TrEMBL record:
Molecular function (Gene Ontology), one example: sequence-specific DNA binding
PANTHER family: TRANSLIN AND TRANSLIN ASSOCIATED PROTEIN X (PTHR10741)
Name recorded for this polypeptide: Uncharacterized protein
Pfam families listed in its UniProt record: Translin
InterPro entries associated with the record: Translin_C, Translin_fam, Translin_sf
Listed CDD domains: TRAX (cd14820)
Species whose genome carries this gene: Malassezia brasiliensis
UniProt xrefs under SUPFAM superfamilies: Translin (SSF74784)
Amino acid sequence: MVVMQPTLTEVFGTYRDEIDAFLQSDTREPSPTMLRFERFIGASLEEMVRLHTITQIEAATFLYFLEHDALMPLDAIQAPLHSDANPLLLYITPERYLLGLSDLTGELMRFAINSVGSPDAPVILERVLGMQRAIYDGTKYRLTLALEPLAPFHNEIRKKQQVSLTSLRKVEDAAYTLRVRSSEYSDPAMVQEMVRRALQSTEPEES
């Protein structure tokens, strides 16, 4: 007996009525169906969060950091994904939000690298370090509480945290090098080049 695999059209048709009903509803809460299938679309959701929401999580949180020197909260990330016609267009889970913040640490590191030639470099590096530490420690703490039982099955979380830690250590090294070399050399351009080389010598892989 040959069992035929259902086509995507057939699978979608099975849930079409439920999806249509949800899109026409007034609720802002995720439906059971949305929660049930979040794990299947999770990777695609994060990639969309990285591509479209590089306008959203990575870029938006980076802009928020520049403007407020603070971390953009999840509800502010979720807010643009509502509309009057369809109250909840897309549900971003706390897990996906934290993964997006892990990506932000890399953007902060690049900002620190580019700031080395600025007279405000020491201040910028300290600001970046403060935010990176908050994200890394906060992310690690929350994931330990919520996802520790899933750690053996969630390599993505572990990999992103490793990259975040590398970015953090790199900026720490840059801040230290800037302080030490500034006391040894009077030429700002020479100091900046030393720091830049120190940063580039430990460039982490993209997350």
